[in-house]
Amino acid sequence: MMLSGVLMLALSFQFVPRAKRTVGREFWWKTFFYGVVGLGLNQAFFMLGLFKTTTANSAILNTLTPIFTLLFAILMKQERFTFRRGAGFFVAILGAVIICKFEDFQLSSQTFQGDVITVLNCVALAFFFAFSRDFLLKTDPFWATAWMFVFGGAVLMLATPSHWHELATFRTDSTFLWAVFYNVVAASIITYFLNSWALTKVNASSVALFIYLQPVVAVLNGWFTYGEAITKRMVLAMICIFLGVGLGVMKKKT
After folding, report:
1. Among 46, 59, 173, 174, which residue carries the largest CB count within 10 Å?
2. How far apart are CA 188 and CA 81, in angstroms?
């Protein structure tokens, strides 16, 4: 995360106009706060939750993020609940749960702690989506995201000193380096920048709703890269997800 922030800052000074690289008291405390909650805690809760629960539980519980986002947005009076939006969320959740194999979900004392931490991950990301939107509308999203990465990464590093020695034991083969490149550039910089940019264009719950497309992308990637079969169940789930997302983001004609 810190590496992503440093790289984004370097790119910001190169490509973001000086006039848009605004700073100030509000900018510093909000990028710090949203960086810690929306990036730092979000990533920490996700990884820790996945470590302490099952993959199926983690995948299914993460479908709660758009729901929490919509709830936050409604409480803040940014959005209002409509039947069509509710139906869209329900159908998309149904598709995500089907594709993630809901029958593998299990509640037990062994997974309870991980399940709770995973839900906290959902709450942290939903909070970021709903509460950071007004701030991102007033600043350059790339510039702001760079500083959020720096602050979120710094807090995580300071919170995990016992793991610093592991940096000296990292592999340096081509597979590892490609994995680092993908995680830094694609999974971190591009993903979080697009989230921030999208929040300046559409409402928070619409941005969160597209999370339901992640399992679809995973299925298609498995088919294209590894030749994994696409089952009837997967097709039904993808239809539900596309239909739900479409209903959720569709604007009522006036």
Report:
1. 59
2. 31
Q: Report the number of distinct structural domains present in the chain.
A: 1
- Which residues form the domain of 122? 2-161+173-249
Alpha-carbon distances of 24 from 1, 48, 128, 139, 143, rounded to whole Å: 23, 34, 20, 11, 13
Confidence of residue 183 (pLDDT cuts 50, 70, 90): confident
3-state class (DSSP) for residue 82 = coil
Per-residue pLDDT of 169-179, as tens digits, reads 666 777 777 87
In a domain, 59, yes or no: yes
Question: Could you tell me if residue 154 is inside a domain?
Answer: yes
Q: Is residue 146 part of a domain?
A: yes
CA 211 to CA 15: how far, in whole Å?
28
- CB-based contacts of 41: which residues, under 8 Å, 6+ apart? 120, 121, 124
Considering the domain boundaries, does residue 10 fall inside one? Answer: yes
Rounded to two decimals, what is the model's pTM? Answer: 0.82
The pLDDT mean for the chain works out to 84
For residue 74, the SS3 value is helix
